[in-house]
Amino acid sequence: MFLIPCPHCGPRAMNEFSYGGDATVTRPAAPGEASDGEWIEYLYLRDNPKGGHEELWQHIHGCRRWLRVSRDAVSHDVLGCVEATEAPS
Ligand SMILES: [Zn+2]
Questions:
Q1: Which residues fall inside 5 Å of ion ligand 1, going by CB?
Q2: What's the confidence (pLDDT) of residue 59?
Q3: Is 40 among the domain residues?
Q4: Residue 72 belongs to some domain of the structure
Q5: Secondary structure of the chain as H, E, C letters
Q6: Which domain CATH number covers 65?
Q7: 14 CA distance to ligand 1 centroid (A)?
């Protein structure tokens, strides 16, 4: 278990949050013109790097905000946390 420093509620246990996926995935700019390959990449294909990740988490048992969390997937160290709409920390 690790703590996530919610910018609104302060440090909270990760089990107060729900994981929302990779924060670096971007929807095709022109969805109607995207190829099947672009949709497959957007919907299903993810990198799985060892180390740093940018992840979306929702504080479901707190402020209910969507957050962008920088986390080391090996050590589980949380390196930063900002609103999901902000630039990476
Ligand atoms: Zn919160």
A1: 6, 8-9, 59, 62-63
A2: 98
A3: yes
A4: yes
A5: CCEEEECCCEEEEHHHCEEEEECCCCCCCCHHHCCHHHHHHHHCCCCCCCCEEEEEEECCCCCCCEEEEEEECCCCCEEEEEECCCCCC
A6: 3.30.2270.10
A7: 11
Q: What are 41-70's pLDDT values in tens digits? A: 999 999 888 999 999 999 999 999 999 999
Give me the pLDDT at residue 23, please.
93
Full domain range(s) for residue 12: 3-24+36-83
pLDDT of residue 27: 92
Ligand 1 centroid to Cα of residue 41, in Å, is: 31
Q: Is the pTM of this model over 0.90?
A: no
